[in-house]
Design a protein that fits this description.
The protein is α/β, with parallel strands linked by helices and 462 residues long. It has 3 domains: 174 residues, FAD/NAD(P)-binding domain, CATH 3.50.50.60; 117 residues, FAD/NAD(P)-binding domain (3-Layer(bba) Sandwich); 95 residues, FAD/NAD-linked reductase, C-terminal dimerisation domain (Enolase-like, domain 1). The protein is 26% helix and 27% strand. The protein has 13 helices and 26 strands. Strand 14 and strand 15 form a beta hairpin. Helix 1 packs parallel to helix 7. The longest helix has 15 residues. It is globular.
Length: 462
């Protein structure tokens, strides 16, 4: 019986487990090793904002692991890998043998080398424990003062959750504008203006030089430009690094992450990697680290299928970030910062609207959208644009149409047959199966919103 070991408990791990079981029908042993409960990091903001309980961030539990025949070593860390022996050593001294190994150790927040980062109330915001610590630090205060160091994607997701609680928020970003890895200067300026209108103070183009504490526990955050910011809690969100330390001296090839091919396999046989720690195929060529949930899910499913003995190739991940910032929608896809691409741009700072399409010939290879929900999400333009890019569809004459009609993605999407291409495409060569785990066994539910009526009424009245 094949012995699988999976290190990590995020979406790579849970999707790999379910895929192995779907392809192997239970004819293997699976051991999961993770120092945290299996959960989704993208659900943490919903817990932080008070929309869900902690338990709903989990993506598996003891009952679901037992049902899938998985030995879950939760709360245990893997300390070393021996590829020659086919074994993994755990922190408690146990040595586990494997036939196939999946490394999904993810990434960790970067630390700042400045005075005061070890003070109580100064923390990162990355894990279940971090989120719990922040809620404890806020205590009974209805409106704590929070200074966030860093205005990247993960930081602003958490900032959005704190905004929903009504906390006093200040952001410090060393780059010239917020979301520097997601937005260009003009689109970020719209977001920065929007944050200001919502009472969020933004200090960009400066760094934190020190954090000091007063006798009452409050903090003072000192900036390089001389500004001092008062805070009850300081969040360090200065970026992330891949957790590649486990493969040091193993012979597994790394660059910025663990290098994997289109089967999620490393240079060593029967060892796979996925998610934030993996540097894998990109849709537009090369090998990239795309630290996003959709890529992690894809990596887990591809790795799981191949570990189960099938030969499934990954077409490559699409860089994409979709984010709500205190009520304004932001999305960027693909090679949005490609200076060699042709750009089509519409910008209305007063209306908080920004759209940029990046073209290589008649193919869209990157995009940025900023706007209110009705201008971005409700029109489903973001989803259709994603489909156009994923299918690598050449738009031909529709390129000129979009130059004149940047808010009408629907016509070229339909006319070029993107929906038909997507409907005929599967990641693993078979229909996808829904995840078996549900919180408290509750079936998935969908609520039809008011926007749905616009489309239904138009159809019924046509």
């Amino acid at each position: 019986m094949t012995k699988h070991i999976i290190i990590g408990g995020g979406p790579v791990a849970t999707n790999a487990i379910e895929t192995i079981r779907q392809f192997e029908d239970g004819q293997s042993q699976i051991t999961l090793v993770c120092d945290e409960p299996a959960h989704s990091r993208m659900a943490l903001p919903y817990w932080l904002s008070g929309q869900i309980p902690r338990e709903q961030t989990h993506t598996a539990d003891d009952a679901s692991f037992q049902k899938q025949g998985v030995e879950a070593r939760i709360g245990t860390r893997a300390t070393s890998i021996d590829p020659a022996a086919g074994s993994v050593t755990l922190a408690d001294g146990d040595v586990l043998n494997y036939d196939k190994l999946l490394i999904a150790t993810g990434s960790s927040p970067l630390k700042l080398d400045i005075p005061g980062t070890d003070l109580p109330g100064v923390q990162t915001l990355w894990s279940l424990a971090d989120t719990e610590a922040l809620l404890a630090s806020a205590g009974t205060s209805a409106n704590p003062r929070v200074v966030m160091i860093g205005a990247g994607f993960i930081g602003l997701i958490m900032l959005n959750a704190m905004h929903k609680r009504g906390w006093q928020l200040t952001v410090v970003e060393r780059e010239s504008h917020v979301l520097p890895r997601m937005l260009d200067t003009d689109s970020a300026a719209i977001v920065g203006s929007w944050l200001g209108s919502k009472g969020v103070a933004v200090h960009s183009g400066t760094t934190v030089t020190a954090i000091t504490a007063a006798a009452d526990g409050s903090k003072s955050v000192e900036l390089a430009d001389g500004t001092k910011l008062a805070a009850d809690v300081v969040i360090v969100a200065a970026g992330i690094k891949t957790n590649v330390e486990l493969v040091d001296d193993t012979g597994i090839d790394t660059d910025r992450g663990i290098l994997v091919d289109d089967r999620m396999q490393t240079n060593l046989p029967n060892i796979y990697a996925g998610g934030d720690v993996a540097q894998g195929p990109s849709l537009f060529g090369g090998q990239e680290i795309h630290s996003i949930q959709p890529t992690a899910v894809d990596h887990g499913r591809i790795a799981g299928a191949n570990m189960a003995g099938h030969d499934v190739q990954y077409p490559g991940s699409l860089s994409m970030n979709v984010l709500d910032v205190c009520g304004i929608q932001n999305a960027s896809f693909g090679n949005w910062a490609d200076t060699s691409a042709e750009a089509m741009t519409i910008c209305s700072p007063e209306g908080h609207v920004y759209r940029k399409l990046m073209w290589s010939g008649d193919e869209i290879t990157g995009a940025i959208f900023v706007g209110r929900a009705n201008d971005v999400g409700m029109l489903t333009d973001v989803g259709m644009l994603k489909g156009i890019m994923q299918t690598r569809t050449s738009l031909g004459q529709w390129k000129d149409f979009l130059a004149e009609n940047p808010f009408d993605i629907r016509r070229p999407y339909i006319a070029t047959g993107v929906a038909k291409k997507l409907a005929a495409t599967t990641l693993l060569g078979r229909p996808a199966q829904p995840r078996s785990y549900r919180y408290e066994g509750t079936p998935a539910q969908a609520t039809v919103g008011t926007s749905h009526g616009v489309y239904v009424d138009a159809k019924n009245n046509s």
